[in-house]
Structure formats: C-alpha cells, structure tokens
Amino acid sequence: MHTVVPPRRLTAALAGAGCLLLPLIAAVPQAGAADVPQAAAASGAMAVAPYEYLGWGNPQKPTDVMAATGVKWFTLAFVLSDGGCNPKWDGSRALTGGSDESQIKSIRGAGGDVVVSVGGWSGNKLGEKCSSASALAGAYQKVINAYHLKALDIDIEDTEFSNATVRQRVVSALKIVKTNNPGIVTYVTMGTTPSGPDSNGKDLIKKGAAAGLANDGWTIMPFDFGSHSGSMGSATVSALEGLKAAVKSAYGYSDDAAYRHIGVSSMNGKTDESDETVTTGDFQTMLGYAKQHHIARFTFWAVNRDRQCSGGGSAGDSCSGVGQSPYAFTKIVSQYAG
C-alpha cells in the first residue's frame, strides 16, 4: 500500500496509539426500552450512507454535504478499543459529550441519521481486546445505547479478520446484539479479491450462517486488490458476484435473497495501488448493478476525499486524486434507492 494515500484500512491508526488499558466488560448490558432502535430496513437512504471520518483529512461538515448532495445518512468511522474492552472514537475520544456526538446531533437535526462503524485496519480492535462474545456484545451495546442507533457497521480487517477465533467472536457478538436490539440493521464489511471474498471472508460468512446470524449486509471493499484486470467497475462486479455466491451457499438463499444481503463499499479516485483508479464511470457501473439486484448497501470511502486536489496534487486523505466536481461520487451513490 502507498503511504501517500492513507487507506481506509490504515487511517484508524492516527489515533489508535497510546490508548490506556481499562477494565474488561464482563457482561452484556440489556438495552432498555429507550435504547432499542425502531425497526429499520437496510435499504433506501441508510443503504447509501457514505463513510466520513471526522478525525481525518479536514472533514467537511456533514450538514454541508447533505445540503449539497441530498444524502441523508453517513457511516461515521471509526470506533476502536481504548486498550481494553471499551469503545471510544479512534480509541481515545469518549462516545458522548464531545464533537462526535455534536455532529451526530447536527445530522439528525437536519433530517438525517448515522451508521457507526466499528473497526478499520489499524488501532486496537474491540474484537481482539474483548475476551468473549458476551463482552464484545457489551462493547457494541455501549455504542448502540450512546446514540440509539438503528444500524451498526463492523469493519473487520487485518488481525481481527485473519484470526478464526476472533471471527467467531464477532459473529457471536452480533447475534447477541440482534437478539437484544430488535430491528437493528447490521453490516459486516471486509476486504475482497477481484473474484470475491478470500478464504477468511468465506469462513466469516459461513460462521455467520452457522450461528443463525441474520446479518443485513455482507459488504466488500473492492480495492487494494494487489492486482486486477479490466476497469475497477468490472472488477467490482466480479467481486460482488463472488460475494453473492458465497452468501447464497452459506445461507441457502435464493439468488434474489442473496443479492439483497450483499453490499459494496468502494473507494473514490486513486486508491493505494498504482494501477487502481476508481472513476465516476466505475461508480455508475456499480450503481447500475445495485439497482438491478437491489443490494443491501452501496457506499464508499470516503466523503473526506470527494473533491479534487488543489493545485493538481496527488490523492490523499482530503482529496481523490482525480479531476472531479465537488461531491461527484456522493451524488452518484445518493441516486440509489435500495
């Protein structure tokens, strides 16, 4: 990966170091009546919630993005471990009482809402720091309760993803979360090859099916492939077809049901690989696929980068590295209606 473009898989490291070890959560808090999200379908505005990282890359005000693009939902990244089994933004900022909560309130005040993303590539992962499924579910529950969430995204990468024990812990914790929060929408987001999930990804999906986890959207990140052929749009379609086959096989779904339980989280512009540039044309290809198959989620990393670099600069944390009008990629995903 290139260091010029801090990838979504690395950005959580910016604040992940130096976290203090706190006591392990030993039990799952039961959601009270005020904490149980109302039922929400994994479609429509929620399904197109683009990622915004409020601690990275001179982020735009979410309400400005809403006014400019019509998008209503955001996926806010990343909640990490503070060194123990306790969730904090970037592993350091409290869930409530700070700027993150203020931004969420502003989004809701403007008629929108948020999905909170737990994980990312770097930093301390709750899936590893929590020693049991019940403790991990308790950490997830703290995030849900803090914002009365209707949707939660588990971005499982790097060492969380490669460890079979942790994969099982994440799946089992999500099953508990689903039981304790009727109607909550859950997404699991992971890397992929151009032909679909790798062996770890397929195992994660199989573990979910075996546990009876009714996950709403198994989502892949079709970039940073290492190598691929054809356009990034066609490579994404190939990866999604592989994902659909894996989900169909594991769950015994029909083709239509399998499509409705998969999702894509692309990256706009230049990625961390020299041979990868995701264009607005590629996003149009993805939009067509999403509309054809009614997939659960069509989003991307990240709103922070959805603007042209000033002075023709290279891609980075706050620009895409390609010629574009402001919010060109967000405006494409916002056309998806589920």
Explain this structure to me?
- This protein has 338 residues and is α/β, with parallel strands linked by helices.
- 37% of the residues lie in helices and 17% in strands.
- The chain has 13 helices and 11 strands.
- The chain has helices at 13-16, 44-47, 62-69, 99-109, 126-129, 133-147, 158-162, 164-180, 199-211, 232-251, 255-259, 280-293, 328-333; strands at 51-53, 73-81, 87-89, 113-120, 151-156, 185-191, 217-221, 262-267, 269-270, 277-278, 297-301.
- The strands form 2 sheets. Strands 1, 2, 3, 4, 5, 6, 7, 8 and 11 form a 9-stranded mixed sheet that branches. A two-stranded antiparallel ribbon has the order 9-10.
- Helix 9 links the parallel strand 6 and strand 7.
- Helix 6 packs across helix 8, helix 9 (199-211) runs parallel beside helix 10 and helix 10 (232-251) runs parallel beside helix 12 (280-293).
- The protein is globular, with a radius of gyration of 18 Å.
- The chain starts with 12 loop residues before the first helix and ends in a 5-residue tail after the last helix.
- The relative contact order is 0.16.
- Residues 1-42 have low confidence and may be disordered.
Which helices and strands occur, and which strands form pairs?
Blueprint (H helix, E strand, L loop, with lengths): L12 H4 L27 H4 L3 E3 L8 H8 L3 E9 L5 E3 L9 H11 L3 E8 L5 H4 L3 H15 L3 E6 L1 H5 L1 H17 L4 E7 L7 H13 L5 E5 L10 H20 L3 H5 L2 E6 L1 E2 L6 E2 L1 H14 L3 E5 L26 H6 L5
Parallel strand pairs: 1-2, 2-4, 4-5, 5-6, 6-7, 7-8, 8-11
Antiparallel strand pairs: 2-3, 9-10
Helix pairs in contact: 6-8, 8-9, 9-10, 10-12
